[in-house]
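go over this:
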Amino acid sequence: MLDNDLFTPRPTLTNPGLLARALNALGQNAPSQLEIWDRLTRNFAVDLDAVASLMPRSEPEPAWLKVRD
């Protein structure tokens, strides 16, 4: 949950080009995708679906079933 006041106005990023640039800038110093999400949502009001479409998808490693004899 965000610590700051939800009623404090934050800059809005709706343009996909500007959003991509912000993600690139924040991602250079962030150790993980979680940190990028945190920094982005603390500093800007964004469309989360647009952010998710620009972020690289992290697919879980498949759990392979053991072969039956």
Notes: Strands lie at 12-13, 45-46.
